[in-house]
Write a structure and sequence with these properties.
This protein has 321 residues and is mainly beta. The chain is built from two helices and 17 strands.
């Protein structure tokens, strides 16, 4: 028998409610706690808290290594000379809706997090004068989680990638990562494409990397505006966010310029060679959340353009050698 329950919660707002006395209320209380406490789930680590950084990205508190991030310290991020653009998202509120499907020995939670945020752009001219404008937007971030019972306790068994989107122009079509073999050749280890929201990943089998080792990541994106009115690079930018929260995270750009392991320039396949961050002081291993975010350049360069972004979320585990 399938039984559906919908739960609505707003981040930072606590609401009292009467206890639902149906047969699944106790189970759902336990499952809700698992959703909130499982470090592989959630959106912490995506928020930039503003536009303080250029396209080359930043690192705050994360045990990262100063190798492998090839590029300028600041990019003149616009086809017009003399201007530098900083940008970032500031998340204001997250509203979570959970729809449960129950069977005797398992439950599935379909989670939608509605993210209310501002996309913030700061323009700096050649004299150092700054102009900042904000674009409020809302995006729905979806993920499904399967729970099973083990030794009389419920546990997270599998989940899907998290997928978020605002606007209709850009999307992510494929994610692939490679590790290096003993002959220094890149070997594909993981590919995600197709029906991402219905592709299950075992909780005990998430991507695991050794700290300080190189990993090549490729993200293939689509843009319905290609070729668009901003013929700068490939028409969109991709960022790889990783971390656990806003004070323990990094944001790095991915490259579609045909250099530094990227095979073909402007083909909408973005590449980054990532020297895996450490688990943090005092930790032998730890789970982090990775977010791959694509933004259409018109979102940044045109103050009248709506926000067009897409995000895939992939948790990963880091171990020390």
């Amino acid at each position: 028998m399938k039984y559906f329950t919908i739960i609505l919660a707003v981040t930072f707002v606590f609401l009292g409610c009467d206890i639902n006395n149906d047969e699944y209320s106790s189970r759902e209380s336990e499952l809700n706690a698992l959703i909130e406490t499982d470090e592989a789930l959630g959106l912490d680590g995506l928020d930039d808290q503003g536009a303080d950084y250029g396209y080359v990205g930043y690192s705050v508190g994360l045990e990262e290594y100063g190798i492998g991030y090839l590029g300028k310290t600041m990019d003149d991020f616009h086809p017009d000379s003399g201007y530098t653009y900083h940008f970032g998202r500031k998340i204001n509120q997250i509203t979570k809706t959970v729809t449960y499907t129950h069977e005797e020995d398992y439950s599935i939670a379909d989670i939608i997090r509605t993210v209310s945020a501002d996309f913030i752009i700061t323009i700096i001219d050649s004299l150092g004068n700054e102009t900042t404008f904000e674009k409020p937007y809302t995006s729905d971030f979806q993920r499904s989680v399967k729970f099973v019972i083990e030794n009389n306790n419920w546990k997270v068994d599998e989940f899907t990638f998290g997928v978020g989107k605002a606007g209709s122009k850009v999307d992510i079509a494929k994610l692939e990562y490679f590790t290096m073999d003993s002959d220094s050749n890149w070997v594909s280890q993981f590919v995600m494409e197709g029906d991402v929201l219905n592709t299950w990943i075992p909780r005990d089998d998430i991507a695991t990397f050794t700290a300080r080792t190189p990993v090549k990541v490729e993200v293939t994106v689509t843009n319905s505006d290609d070729p668009n009115s901003y013929p700068f690079k490939s028409g969109e930018g991709v960022m790889f966010h990783r971390g656990r929260h806003r004070n323990l995270k990094a944001r790095r750009p991915m490259n579609d310029e045909g250099t530094f392991e990227d095979a073909v320039a402007n083909d909408n396949v973005f590449t980054q060679v990532w020297f895996v961050n450490g688990p943090g002081m005092g930790h032998q291993q730890r789970v982090f959340r990775g977010f791959f975010s694509v933004v259409d350049f018109a979102t940044i360069f045109n103050s009248d353009e709506t926000v067009n972004v897409a995000v895939w979320a992939m948790p990963y585990k880091v171990e020390r050698p």
